[in-house]
Amino acid sequence: MDIFTPLQEALDFILRILDFVPVVRVIISFVLILFLPGFAWTLVFFKKINVVERIAFSFGLSLAIVTLIILVLNVVFKVRITGFNSFIVIILVTIIPLTIYYFNRARRKHSNGSPKILGKIKGFLLRLLH
Questions:
Q1: Phi-psi group of 78: left, alpha or beta (phi > 0 → left; psi -120 to 50 → alpha; rest → beta)
Q2: What Å distances lie between residue 47 and 1, 69, 104, 108, CA to CA?
Q3: Has this prediction a pTM greater than 0.70?
Q4: Which class for 81: exposed (0-12), middle (13-18), buried (19 or more C-beta within 10 A)?
Q5: Which of 31, 64, 97, 116 could be disulfide-bonded to 44 (CB atoms 3.0-4.6 Å)?
Q6: In this model, does residue 76 exceed pLDDT 70?
Q7: DSSP for 67-88?
Q8: How far apart are CA 16 and CA 2, in angstroms?
Q9: Is residue 37 within 8 Å of 62, Cβ to Cβ?
């Protein structure tokens, strides 16, 4: 049993439930694959664009980033393309820019006065890693 077995079993259970409602599965897949990763990266890359531009960039970035990362993992690192592996990649590609955006926003917000929150976050992460 590896570290991802419980997560994979939970994902399989959810997918079995969603098999009975294919419309919901398509909508969730559409948003997860074609929108969220790109939207998260637009928050990091583009500071001052309007909503329509952000949505358009989101679709383009999601298609490019998710496809390229899964392709590179398969060709270079010989990672098989499965639904579970793709799901993990998409989640990571979404969480990484959201974390960067959150830290940048917290730094900008507290740069004029008290950087205490950044010290607390840094201390928490250091304790978590040790």
A1: left
A2: 44, 24, 11, 12
A3: yes
A4: exposed
A5: 97
A6: yes
A7: HHHHHHHHHTT-----HHHHHH
A8: 22
A9: yes
